[in-house]
Amino acid sequence: MSTAFTGFKENKDFPNVYEQGRKISNLIYGIETDRSYVAKTVTFQVTEFCNLDCTYCYQINKSNKKLSLEYAKKFIDLLIEEYYTENSYFYQTDCVILEFIGGEPLIEVDLIYDIIEYFKKVTIKKRHPWAKNYMISMISNGVLYFNEKVQKLLKDNEGKLDFSISLDGCKELHDKCRVFHNGKGSYDIAEKACKHYMANYNPNMSTKLTLAPENIDWLSKAMINLIENLNYTIIHSNCIFEEGWNEEHALIFYEELKKVGDYILDNDLENDTYISLFDDKDFQFKKLDESDNGNFCGTTGSMVAIAPSGDIFTCIRFMRSSLGDNVKPFSIGNIETGIGRRPEYKNRINLLDSITRRSQSDDECWNCPIGSGCGWCTANNYQETGTPNKRVKHICIMHKARALGNVYFLNKLYRKHNMTNRKEMHIPKEWALSIISEEEYNMLYDLQK
Questions:
Q1: pLDDT value at 6 more than 50
Q2: pTM
Q3: Residue 97 region, left (φ>0) first, then alpha (ψ -120 to 50), else beta?
Q4: Is 233 helix (H, G, I), strand (E, B) or coil?
Q5: CA nearest neighbour of 313 among 282, 349, 289, 344
Q6: Which of 27, 110, 180, 226 has the largest CB neighbor count within 10 A?
Q7: Residue 159: CB partners within 8 Å, gap ≥ 6?
């Protein structure tokens, strides 16, 4: 069980779908068993269209295409069939997360409602384990939140729905990045929706900040606004995997992390606020053991997604809507032929299953002294290199900055509480000095004593 900061409070973050599956099985559904339950995420791309035009969106090839209810039903039927088929992609999958995504998913609220109702009806009729062991996940931009049909969807699935609204921290940043097609910002609408949802459904709704080169200098202001004015206690954040990062961005990132950390400590919020950019797990920001050779990305076995075309993928980022027209979609089947039942589909599944940290990493990544905690996107690897089995490293400099920021925050946290713990700085000095000054490095070095 991971913990927030010092272990004072249980971490509400689910770092991967496998851990989320165990949480769903054991906590939400009350399944009492020693068996380790595994969840897989079933993603329905209900539409490629979005009513916003966010500057950092990875979906670069949107259209007006939408998923038909007929295709969605066939997809559900196919997965239920696979559950009982030995050696199939979904064989004996214990529980599922039904994820609805766009574009903006709530544009197709009627379709989402019908898909959920069909899933409930068919699993109950077949007395399938998923009739109980499922969860619904959805992230919206909030523009259509107050629609009457959306409210009915939220109310009818309360207790089974993990819902969140994308909010980029503060009005200035949000309205810079998350804009309508006419260029107008959407913050006021999203903020109103967030406040209503937390007041009427879930006071602990989390949010996620996507960090890109053009907004990295807003990090502290955005997070502080989320905490002070919107009462968020769970804030996820990550840097985009795409190119564009440099040492200047890394220095800004480090300084922004210091500001956030100082704010948390100065206001005694360390017991009440989870920020995913800080992590006090012992294995974070240090060299990984050679035995730790798994693949970080869940697209290699724990997810499956259907596009409006009826083609099936492991992840939405392998679809044309994300890859664009110059990269061939990397599908693993379709609703007519099934999953992996043709040679080309089976070969792709086998390739994805064979990916390890070692197979996709060059020697620099494999031997990285702060490799723990660094992530990658298998689909982005494919998009940029032509194979999912070659790691893209644009995020490297930002991971180094995050490692330094954690040394600063966590050691100040431990000292504040008179703890003997120390966050050791594993990043080589020459790497650190490519981001911060020698004086700053010496300060960090002293903090870990």
A1: no
A2: 0.88
A3: beta
A4: coil
A5: 349
A6: 226
A7: 28
